[in-house]
Every structure is written in structure tokens, then in C-alpha cells.
Specification:
Number of helices: 17
Strand content: under 5%
Oligomer: single chain
Number of strands: 2
Shape: elongated
Radius of gyration: 27 Å
Structural class: mainly alpha
Amino acid sequence: MKQRLIFEWKTFLTVKNIILIVLLSATFFLSFVSLFFSNFNNNESLIPVLEEDIRVNSKGLEEQKEEARNAKDEVWLKSLENTEKINEISSQQITALRREDWSEFYTLEQKRAKLLFAEGGANTGDGLEYLKQKDPKRYLASKKDLEQRKYMVDKKIPITEDLAMPKSSWGALSIDLATFSSFILIMLFAILFCDFLTNNFEKSTIYLYSFTVKKKRSILSFKLIVQFLVAVVVSSVAFPLMFFIKGMIAGFGVSQVPVAIGNNVDNLSFISALQLLLMYIPYYFIVLLFLIILFLFLGSYLQKTLLSLGIFLLSYYGFTLIKDMDFMKMISPFVPYSYLDTFGVITQTDLYFPKHSFVIGMIYLLLLSGILYALTARRMNKLEI
């Protein structure tokens, strides 16, 4: 068995695959771009904005209050008093930012948002309602961001950075994990896996194997083991390395950072960043296992690399273009491609995901992997070479 694994490992390490492994490893470090090309001191960029708000809101405020009193217009006077309170809170936020006290800043931000909403000056509600009609998916993401901040303030979870642009390891974990399960990463893994079996057919190296029934099956199992080990090792080395290096540069933050779960804005739940990571890891490896078996299945029947890869790329990319359309809402939950975005499945970024999409996705992909593996093994045993 050891010799067979070494043999398959050597055949896997082609120039193309080595380049792809390097590219895959590099994508895990993309989050460093935000550290070097953005301002570390986000508080310094927020202070001028708040100062300008205070300046604009204060202009002629006392004169207007006097006019409102003389006119005995209680509604106008109440509005001006709210504006005065907003200015006071903004001033306190500036003080908090200069102390780099983000917890205090966001606590004050909640109070400021309530006054702005009551005043109607921020048009936050109207803006979100417009977004809800125009782009429900972005509306869901925006509501999750707002609810996350409110949750952290209400639960008194330490806030160590700007939540709009987190840079710490735990703070930016959601952004990083979303990147690692993105369309681009899936495509790179697909290109890595697509030709491991088909190359044997195209180059006739399949004849190097001894074709007893048992050994025909072993061709499949050894190729599966080698590819899965490569995927696991690349992910298991690159991500922790990125996490700790990023932590040393920008800080680790706190693992209690909440992540909003659900696609119903009236019924969102929250898990910590640590819980998200613990859910993400096993599901991510199941996705990789499914991709490997899918390409072994396509390779055993089609025996052509470009054909296998082309079918996957066209079908997967095509699905991503139409999955959010109205006519697909009832169909998308049954399409395996829906469950390849690990972060999206866990947090339910798509509106069509059922309530328990994480568990459903794991069971569905494992079941399909088992079926495809059985069909591939059956095909390999029947090959007449």
C-alpha cells in the first residue's frame, strides 16, 4: 500500500499541479492585502466625518431653537433638541475614538442611530427598505451587519477594532472564510482534481496497472486518498499560518465576535467566530471530498480532461448566475452546487437555504459522494482495457 501511495503521489506532482498548489496556498494569504493597502488607524478617518457632522448640525441651531420657542412649535423644538443630543453623542464618539475605545464608540453609535432614526435624518430605514426591494441579498447582508453590532453592544462583547473594516484574526475571520470558499477557490481546486484519472486514459498509462478486479478498484481508492490528503494538508498548513501571522501583525482580536446565522432578518441567531471555525473545517473537507469524487466519476466515464472540466465549469458557473432568480428558488436547494460555498451554507447567505442548511448540506454531499464513488468503482471494474 505504501508503494502504491508513493507512486500515485509522484504521478500527481506534475508541473501544473505544483503551480496550482502554490496558487491555492497564496489565496489563503489574500486577506493580508487589506492590512497593507488600508489605513490601520480607521479611527483617524472617522473623526473628521463626525466633526463635519457636528459643524453642519450646529450651524444656526440656537437661532432655530429660539424661533421654535417663539412660534411655540413643540415638534420643531423636539427635533432641534434631538439634533443637539446627536451632536453631544458625536462629540463623545470622537473622544472614544481618540482613546481607541471601540466598545464605547459602538455603544454611543447605537444611541446615535436611535436618535437619527427618530429624527428621520439618516433615512436609514428608507434606505434599507429600498435595498430590500432592489437587492434582497444585499439587504440581508446589511441587516446582519447592523444586528451583529447591536448584539455585541447588548451582550457587552469586547470590541477591539472598527467592525466595518476588521483586520484582526478573529475579527476578519468571517471575511477570510468567505474568501476561502468562494467561486475562485472552488475553480482552482476543480482544475487541480480534474485530470488525475483522465491523464491515465489520455496518455495510456492506465495500462501500467494490473487489471484484476481488486486492483481496478484500488486505482480509484489510492487516487482518492492522495488527492484528499493534498487538499487537507494545503488547507491545514496555509490557513493556520495565515491566521497566526495576521494575528502577530494586526492582533488576534476576540474569539467571541458574533456571526449572524439565518436568512430571515426577523429571526437571526448568532454563533461566535470560534464556533464558526469549528463548523467550517469539517464541512470544507466534505466539499473537497465531493469535488474529488465528482471528477473521478466524470473521468471514469468521459476519459477526457477538457470534457470533464468543461462540463463542471459551465454547469457550476451557469448555476451561480441563475441561482437567485425567482424560478430557481424551489430548485436551488436540491442542486449540489448550492452546498459548495461552505461559508454561505453555514451562515445562510442565500435566501433559498432551508433552516438547517449546514446539516442538510453535509448529509447531501456525503450521500452524493457515496453514490458517485460506487458508480465510479462499478465503471472501473467493467473497463475493458
